[in-house]
Amino acid sequence: MSDCLFCKMISGDIQPDTVYEDEHVLAFRDINPQAPTHILIIPKEHISTLNDLDPGHANIMGQLYLAARKIAEDEGIAGPGYRTVTNCNADAGQTVFHIHMHLLGGRNMGWPPG
Ligand code: AMP
Ligand code: ZN
Question: How far is it, in rounded angstroms, from Cα 10 to Cα 53?
């Protein structure tokens, strides 16, 4: 997807503040952090929204959580706790249409979310 911001990060056209990468995912710091730790974890395959998932994506979605678990450990937030969020479409406030998991930690999270 040539016009997708996150695909440009995967291709190397744009360099994010990368914290983790493997064959399935790329993870980098959010440019507008909402918590002391705010990292975005994205699949290397372009998928626009959660609505576009099909059974063939089961592995890659699992890989996002496995990366979150590892990064949380590396960031020192695994024990204290953290939140993972994936926004879908307008009501949830999705602004970048390449699926991403927000990994947020380092402060107490309110519930319910806004
Ligand atoms: P969402 O609103 O759930 O689609 O999340 C998109 C996120 O991408 C927001 O938290 C933005 O701050 C973040 N973002 C947008 N552009 C960049 C960028 N160039 N580098 C890192 N994060 C970005
Ligand atoms: Zn993309």
Answer: 20
Please tell me the pTM assigned to this model: 0.98
Closest to 29 (Cα-Cα) out of 37, 39, 42: 39
Is 46 among the catalytic positions?
no
User: Which residues, chain by chain, have CB under 5 Å from ion ligand 2?
Assistant: 1, 4, 6-7, 46, 98
Per-residue pLDDT of the chain (114 residues; tens, 9 = 90+): 679 999 999 999 999 999 999 999 999 999 999 999 999 999 999 999 999 999 999 999 999 999 999 999 999 999 999 999 999 999 999 999 999 999 999 999 999 998
